[in-house]
Amino acid sequence: MEPKVQLDPMTETALRSLHDIALPEPISWLPQTWGWVALAELLVIALLSAFLIWLRHYRRNAYRREALHLLDAIEADIRNQTSREKGVHELSELLKRTALAAWPRGDVASLTGRAWIERLNANGGDGALAVLLDDLEYHNGTDIAALPAETTDELILNSRRWIRRHHVSA
Q1: What pTM, to 2 d.p., does this model score?
Q2: HSE of 19 in the Cβ direction (CA atoms, 13 Å)?
Q3: How far apart, in Å, do the first and last CA atoms of the chain sit?
Q4: 125 near 66, Cβ under 8 Å?
Q5: Which of 10, 52, 116, 152 holds its CA 20 to 30 A away from the CA of 30?
Q6: Taking residues 33-38, what's their average pLDDT?
Q7: Per-residue pLDDT tens digits for 20-31
């Protein structure tokens, strides 16, 4: 043990009168000027607007998601040689129903044959889907069942592409 150092009374009094360091009040996180409040409000409005635009877009494309879901079921029929004819006819119906959901009924419902194919091409079809549907839709079951796998794969791929990408003017 170290020997205790004896301090003079004046030093002891001075040491006893010392206090801890006085810390300033913590700085507030609240903005000090109205400009920051206005900026925060604008940011909230911008985020809310972006969310509402996304929600509107999401709801407008609900028919596309439903059509793609139905196309998955039809794809199984088209790949199966025994139910291929049924699948091709269901695919034609699905494309027409998708078009009816996208455009006014008066513009789409009466379209058949060449006019229907032109409508598909004008709104995002790349021609391959139209060539397949123009001819394939009117064949009998044995001709449809005899289609090669590449043709059916191309039909499904082009149908899926048209459903996802067709253009609907606002």
Answers
A1: 0.68
A2: 3
A3: 91
A4: no
A5: 52
A6: 88
A7: 888 888 888 877
